[in-house]
């Protein structure tokens, strides 16, 4: 094995994911499910305390609400590659206070930009740290309320702001509350609104190269495109047994049957997990660095340049005006 391939084998790739959306849509439950499917079997990993607070009843809902942004990191392995996965959970957006909502979105953007600032600071150092952490947010899941018929004006406003800084993947949570037709109609309506309002959510590229191998890959990608927004169903707290296989599952039990959250026929969680951790991971990272970070960096440098161009007199007047406030 060559030295470079040995280095690659041991290299740890960083991936940072964020969840945002209005409150109570199932963001923390999704993070918990991702954590459970990745680490449940590893006894040495303690779940973050925020994930152990579960809402069994309506009275608990307030206690389990995410009150401030938090993150935690897991060391996982996907297809033989080591990944340091950081998950960032945000407080849900408020529905009834426009001003507060704008502040909340600004807070999310500030967090994303603060990660870009870290890269910028590292880049401008004379002696750079080759082991510097990549804390940039590579993808952000935007949770859409499935009780609306598509995107609301608020969704559109929020999406327009966050898609300027990060790869955004729209998702519909609590898909168990919809019938197959309702879910298909909702997905159609959301895609229509995204197109109509020209919201640049992450666009899954379709490989158009010839050749049988790439045709299959293109088919898979075309299939992914039709699944957007991905539907998610988070499991109940209790361990469930699938009556047909007698095996333990992550699911939800109803009087009419059991949902297996990892069954692709029931929801898109497994496809989404694969897209995030495996098939599109590198693309998310490349786009973050080459598009979103570059854009931010250019804006910052231009702003710095503009502030340097202010004359001494202008600066003095500005300081005097500020003192008067
Ligand atoms: N039916 C159903 N309920 C769900 C699902 N996912 C989460 N829930 C329930 O929805 C409620 C809110 O879930 P959370 O995961 O705390 O939602 P959140 O978006 O993190 O909420 P905030 O932190 O307040 O923004 C809880 O009672 C969950 O049990 C789902 O897939 N289906
Ligand atoms: Mg939460």
Automatic annotation (TrEMBL):
One Pfam match: Septin
Matches recorded under InterPro entries: G_SEPTIN_dom, P-loop_NTPase, Septin
Key word Nucleotide-binding present: yes
Keyword Signal: no
Stored PROSITE patterns: G_SEPTIN
Database matches in SUPFAM superfamilies: P-loop containing nucleoside triphosphate hydrolases (SSF52540)
Gene3D superfamilies: P-loop containing nucleotide triphosphate hydrolases
Superkingdom of this protein's organism: Eukaryota
Domain Septin-type G: 11-303
Gene Ontology cellular component terms for the protein in this record: cell cortex; septin cytoskeleton
Keywords (A to Z) from UniProt: GTP-binding, Nucleotide-binding
Any one GO molecular-function label of the UniProt entry: GTP binding
Family according to the record: Belongs to the TRAFAC class TrmE-Era-EngA-EngB-Septin-like GTPase superfamily. Septin GTPase family.
Protein name: Septin-type guanine nucleotide-binding (G) domain-containing protein
Protein source organism: Gigaspora rosea
Taxonomic path: Eukaryota, Fungi, Fungi incertae sedis, Mucoromycota, Glomeromycotina
């Amino acid at each position: 094995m060559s030295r470079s391939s040995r280095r690659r084998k041991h290299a740890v790739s960083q991936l940072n994911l964020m969840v945002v959306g209005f409150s109570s849509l199932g963001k923390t439950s999704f993070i918990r499910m991702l954590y459970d499917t990745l680490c449940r079997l590893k006894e040495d990993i303690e779940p973050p305390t925020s994930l152990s607070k579960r809402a069994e009843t309506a009275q608990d809902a307030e206690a389990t609400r995410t009150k401030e942004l938090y993150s935690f990191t897991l060391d996982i392995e996907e297809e033989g590659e080591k990944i340091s996965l950081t998950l960032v959970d945000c407080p849900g957006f408020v529905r009834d206070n426009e001003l507060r909502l704008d502040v909340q979105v600004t807070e999310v953007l500030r967090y994303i930009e603060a990660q870009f600032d870290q890269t910028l600071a590292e880049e401008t150092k004379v002696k750079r740290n080759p082991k510097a952490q990549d804390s940039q947010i590579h993808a952000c899941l935007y949770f859409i309320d499935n009780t609306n018929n598509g995107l609301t004006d608020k969704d559109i406003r929020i999406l327009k702001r966050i898609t300027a800084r990060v790869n955004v993947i729209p998702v519909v949570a609590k898909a168990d509350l919809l019938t197959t037709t309702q879910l298909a109609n909702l997905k159609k309506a959301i895609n229509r609104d995204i197109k109509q309002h020209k919201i640049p959510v992450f666009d899954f590229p379709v490989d158009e190269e010839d050749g049988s191998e790439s045709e299959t890959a293109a088919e898979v990608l075309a299939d992914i495109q039709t699944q957007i927004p991905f539907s998610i169903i988070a499991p109940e707290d209790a361990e469930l047994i699938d009556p047909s296989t007698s095996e333990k599952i992550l699911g939800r039990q109803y009087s009419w049957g059991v949902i297996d959250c990892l069954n692709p026929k029931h929801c898109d969680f497994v496809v989404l997990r694969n897209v995030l951790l495996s098939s599109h991971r590198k693309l998310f990272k490349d786009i973050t660095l080459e598009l979103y970070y570059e854009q931010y960096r250019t804006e910052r440098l231009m702003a710095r340049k503009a502030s340097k161009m202010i004359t001494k007199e202008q600066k003095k007047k500005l300081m005097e005006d500020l003192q008067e406030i």
